[in-house]
Amino acid sequence: MFNYRQLHYFYSVAKAGGMVRGAEQLHLTPQTLSGQIAQLEEKLGVALFRRTGRRLELTEAGRLALSYADEIFQVGNELEETLRNRHGERPFLFRVGIADVVPKSIAYRLLAPALGLPEPVRMVCREDKFERLLAELAIHRLDMVLADRPLSPGMDVKGYSHLLGECGLTFFAAPGLATKLEGGFPHLLDSAPLLIPGEDSAIRAPLLRWLRGQNIHPRLVGEFDDGALMKSFGQAGAGVFPAPTAIAAEVAAQYGVVSVGRTEAINERFFLITVERKLSHPAALAVSEAAHQGLFPTRETLHKQP
């Protein structure tokens, strides 16, 4: 039978980042802890850690084991909480994956309505690469994935893409750089230093095609997988950068930058990906409704507004 105490020892060491720190947290000696983990490795037939210099690193099998241990102990904590509060109202779990290219402010504004439901909600957010999140969705470890692209036909995942909304792009620059840009938009981008999203971003290719179509040739000075890092470089004056128009006011206020132009010729889209053809999860429905009425209003919604 599987020894869950040994799994907990492994989990504690992996989370603590070392045998000594793990032993201190568990009030055990490093020798005892090391021996227990060695027994677990022997039973499983794989090495969970490898030593690199003085540091312990997880092997590939160790990373897989850690992901399962995370879920096992999370379920255990939920069981304990439920039994202790069985006479109260139990919050329902809402597990959402967020593709790491989705701007944090958009993710927050899309997901926040789920916390306003009449029923208590416990939200678990996991940020990762799009493909890895889809794998988690496929085995029902996530209820939905928030992404900047739909499922492609070539992906071996059974799921459905629900469009939350779309918006154009606004280009920003630090005030000092903005004063040096010459001409009207978009031609002021020609020869200007430009910061762009990394290869994982769905908007990158359309952005570069649009620039070529306008016969605009900026100086690409930086590519960023992390949108917040790109904005920080833009804030420092390293270059002009794009952001979704839906959060233009927020970007300007947070980073102290100014808009140098915007276009609707490039649309950044955001999707809710689920295993359901029709949304039924209360939190997912709240996210979709709020997106269409607030952050990304549809034409029908706009016509209904006074």
UniProtKB/TrEMBL annotation:
One GO biological process this protein is involved in is: regulation of DNA-templated transcription initiation
Question: Does Transcription regulation show up as a keyword for this record?
Answer: yes
Keyword Transcription regulation tagged: yes
Instruction: State the source organism's domain of life.
Output: Bacteria
Which UniProt keywords are present, listed alphabetically? Answer: Activator, DNA-binding, Transcription, Transcription regulation
HTH lysR-type domain span? 2-59
Q: Name one GO molecular function term.
A: DNA binding
Identify the PROSITE patterns for this entry: HTH_LYSR
Membership in a protein family? Belongs to the LysR transcriptional regulatory family.
Name this polypeptide is given: LysR family transcriptional regulator
